[in-house]
Amino acid sequence: MTAVFVHGVADTFRIWKGVQRHLKRSDSIALALPGFDSPVPPSFQATKEEYVDWLIDRLERIGEPVDLVGHDWGCILTLRVASLRPDLVRTWAGGSGPVSAAYEWHEFAHIWQTPGVGERWMRSLDIESFSRQLEAFGVPIDEARATVARIDDTMKHCILQLYRSAVNVGAEWEPRLTEMSAPSLIFWGQHDSTTPVEYADRLQKAIDAPDILKLECGHFTPIQCPQAIAAALEDHWAHGNKKMA
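Structure for Alpha/beta hydrolase, as requested:
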C-alpha cells in the first residue's frame, strides 16, 4: 500500500519532506505536478481538469488503491480524484484547499485569474518581496526564498492557466464530493487567512468526514506542523486498514 502526497501552489513536492520524515512507513511518494519543478507533458494546458487526469493516470500506474494526501491545490485536486475514481483511493486526507461554492478566492488568485494583470505580476515577481510575504504566512524565510526561487517561467504559466480554469471550481466540483467513499481526515490551520478554517467545517459536512485536525498555525500546515500531521495520518491509516479488513 502506497501513500501519495500532492502539493499545492506555488509549492513543489518538497513541502512534504517534514511530514514524510516523521512517518513510520517508508512507502510514501510526493508527486511533482507538471510545471512545478517538473516537466510539462506535450500539449498539456495546465487546466484543473488536466491536472486531475494526470493524477488519475499516476495512481492507475501504481496498480492498487493508495492513501492519498493533499494540501492547498493538492487538496482540491485529490478531492476531485477521490470523488471521480473512488476505486483508486483507500483513504483520503487533506486540507487548506476548499471545494465550496461559497468560497471567495484570495487576493493572489484574483490577480492570477485576471488576464494582463496576472502576467504583469509574474513578470515583476521579486524573490525577496514574495519570500517575505510567505514568511508572514508562517514559512521560514530560508525555505520561502528557496520556494520562490523555483518559480520559473514554466511554473508561472501553469499557475495562471490553473487559476483561470478554476474561477468557479467550487460550484463545479462540490456536488460530486458526496460520491467520495474513502475514509477521510481533514487537517487545517486555525489561523489560515487565505482559506479560512470555516471551510474545513463545510468540507467535513460535504464528505461526511469524522475528524478535523485543527492546527495552531496558518496556511502552510505541512511546513508548520509536520509532526502533528504525520501522527494524525498514521492513526488515520491504521483506522483505514481496520475498516478495509
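The mean pLDDT is 96.
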